[in-house]
Design brief:
Blueprint (H helix, E strand, L loop, with lengths): L13 H31 L4 H19 L3 H23 L8 H10 L2 H5 L5 H16 L1 H7 L12 H87 L3 H15 L4 E9 L5 E9 L3 H5 L2 E3 L3 H9 L3 E3 L9 E2 L4 E2 L3 E9 L2 E10 L5 H111 L3 H82 L2 H59 L1
Helix pairs in contact: 1-2, 1-3, 2-3, 3-4, 3-6, 4-8, 8-9, 8-12, 12-13, 13-14
Length: 626
């Protein structure tokens, strides 16, 4: 353990630590001083060695007291010990009052400064007590000198060397306390300066803290003001939302809203304007409700969308905030008089980028930013309400129209069902006619085949006739030789001519029958053409009916989508339904075109068959002439 820092701990005061440190340093010096003087006295005055032994014991007691934290008692012992020991040695060595040992006296005087070195003014009791004991010891040295009479040779203490050593020791022990006292004073001054600097810093920190506190207080007040404004706005939104939910009559609702808005924002006048649309080109602004307006103002209820500040607010879709209101723009009247407001605020009621109406407020007080923000939020809710009301009205009208169209569609369905039944009957009749026509065509084909067979037979007969004529030529050559054979052959020829005549008559009868068949076929073809035209007309009518029914179904589907979804989804659905309707219409048109093409092909085939029959008949007419 380091003796220099004995008894010093972190929980002690700085001054106390310094005093204990100085007492430890002094005790070490005293210890070495006692050793040196005990050696000197051991050889020159051994009779006084018990005083040194007692001093070592007291010095050990000091260390023990310091160690056990009785530092004040230890310092007190160390403060009075040097003075008492040196005084006792001086009295023992002095052989009378006139025998003065100057070096020892100087050492005693220097030891009297130890109480100031070991104690400060805070420890006034041990300081005064130690000073008193040292002073009493010095003051009573003459009395003590008379009481103590020890015959000792003190010449060794009077030698120049000892005088010089004693003087140096006295000066050292005089300078050391003074040095430490001056050092304590300097440290105290430095400490005071440090404390002053710390006080200044603390003052600056206090000023900064005060400024920060004031800033924080201002922020808290601002935050509280913002909270109050937010609470005010939230309360207003909740209040007006409740009003909009409770009242269903739109006119009453707007009157209630405008009166409550004017009162809530502490304005003086207010009005609601709605955007009315007759068509895409005719739009106007209509005054729906007003609060505290005079009669002349209230009578003018409609404005053009390009007229005045209302039109500008509608076209720009932005707030208009006037603080320099013209004198003739508006007047706020009461029973005591009238005056021009300080500010005018126009807010468009916008929903989905569409202006549904305009809110106009006039006040003697200039509207604050948070009030304008609140009115903007409220305008969005009112615009949404207007939009919903108009959508509901449109939905209601569309629903009524849908119901009416549903009834018309039912009637059209009934009519179409009847048309379908008639069309089905017509198709069955047409199928029967086609079947009969096919049968007649088969009969005609059989007759044609028979005619072709008869034609073949006639051709063979003609060939035979030609062969016969050739044979007749031969016979005419032979006629000159054999007249009788020629006459017989002439008779045979007459018989053959008779037979040919009968065959030609039969062919003419067959041709007349063919003419009759062709005439009947023409009539049936005309009837078939008329029926085909009727079928085409019925198919066209049926196609139109199907288109009308499809259009009606599309309208009904659009109405149902109107009831389920919003207006934008309805427009998209209309496009999709229109595409589907066009596809269906194209399909029906394709089917009708196919039917018409088939009918035209059948008619063309019949016409071609008719031409073939006519050509064949003409050939048959020409061949008999030949």
């Amino acid at each position: 353990m380091n003796i220099l820092f004995l008894g010093i701990s972190d929980d002690l005061d700085f001054n106390l630590k310094n005093k204990i440190l100085q007492s430890n340093r002094t005790s070490i010096l005293i210890f070495f001083l006692l050793i040196a003087y005990s050696i000197v006295f051991y050889f020159n005055a051994p009779v006084l060695l018990p005083i040194f032994y007692f001093s070592f014991i007291l010095l050990l007691v000091y260390y023990i007291l310091i160690f056990v934290k009785f530092n004040r008692l230890g310092r007190f012992i160390l403060a009075v010990l040097p003075t008492i020991i040196s005084g006792t040695i001086y009295v023992s060595l002095s052989q009378g009052n006139n025998d003065i040992l100057l070096g020892v006296a100087l050492i005693i005087f220097s030891f009297t400064l130890f109480p100031f070195l070991f104690f400060d003014l805070k420890e006034i009791i041990p300081l005064c007590l130690s000073i008193a004991i040292c002073s009493i010891g010095i003051a009573t040295h003459n009395i003590s000198n008379n009481l103590i009479d020890i015959k000792i040779d003190n010449s060794f203490m009077k030698t120049p060397l000892m005088d010089t050593i004693n003087t140096i020791i006295a000066i050292v022990f005089l300078v050391i306390p003074l040095f430490y006292l001056l050092k304590e004073k300097l440290e105290a001054e430095n400490k005071n300066l440090t404390l002053m600097d710390e006080m200044d810093k603390r003052k600056e920190e206090s000023d900064l803290s005060q400024k920060e506190l004031e800033k924080t207080l201002s922020e808290v007040q601002h935050a509280r003001l913002e909270d109050d404004r937010r609470n005010w706005a939230a309360t207003g939104i909740a209040k007006f939302t409740m009003l909009m939910r409770e009242e269903e009559n739109l006119e009453k609702l707007f009157n209630i809203l405008i009166s409550n808005i004017v009162k809530y924002v502490e304005a003086n006048q207010g009005a609601f304007y709605l955007i009315e649309v007759e068509n895409d080109e005719n739009k106007f602004i209509k005054l729906e409700a007003a609060y505290a307006y005079n009669k002349k103002k209230y009578l003018h209820q409609q404005f053009n969308i390009k007229e005045g500040l209302l039109g500008q607010c509608y076209l720009e879709k932005k707030n208009i905030f006037l603080t320099n209101v013209p004198q003739n723009y508006i007047r706020i009247t009461s029973g005591l008089g009238e005056a021009t407001p300080k500010c005018i605020l126009l807010i468009p009621l916008i929903f989905n980028n569409h202006v549904e109406g305009i809110l106009e407020l006039a006040s003697f007080n200039v509207f604050k930013s948070f009030e304008i923000d609140f009115l903007n939020r409220l305008s969005e809710n009112i615009a949404a309400l207007l939009r919903n009301v108009r959508i509901n009205e449109k939905t209601r009208s569309l629903l009524e129209e849908s119901q009416q169209q549903s009834e018309e569609m039912r009637a059209q369905e009934e009519e179409m069902r009847q048309n379908m039944e008639e069309l089905q009957a017509t198709q069955e009749h047409q199928q029967r006619l086609e079947k009969e026509l096919k049968e007649k065509l088969e009969v005609t084909q059989q007759q044609t085949e028979e005619l072709l067979a008869q034609e073949e037979e006639m051709r063979q007969n003609m060939e035979e006739l030609q062969a016969t004529q050739e044979h007749q030529y031969k016979l005419e050559e032979e006629l000159r030789e054999k007249l009788e054979i020629s006459q017989q052959q002439a008779e045979e020829m007459s018989a053959q001519e008779e037979e040919m005549r009968q065959t030609i008559e039969e062919l003419q009868a067959t041709q007349e029958h063919q003419y009759k068949l062709e005439e009947e076929l023409r009539e049936k073809l005309e009837i078939s053409q008329q029926q085909a035209e009727e079928m085409n007309a019925q198919e066209e009518e049926m196609r139109q009916t199907i288109e009308e029914m499809q259009a009606t179904q599309d309208q009904q589907s659009k109405l149902e989508l109107d009831l389920r979804d919003k207006l934008e989804e309805l427009e998209e659905s209309q496009k999709e339904v229109e595409n589907i309707r066009r596809m269906e219409t194209a399909k029906v048109n394709n089917q009708v075109d196919k039917i018409n093409k088939l009918n035209q092909q059948e008619i063309e085939k019949l016409k071609i068959r008719e031409k073939e029959l006519l050509e064949h008949v003409k050939k048959l007419e020409k061949e008999p002439k030949k």
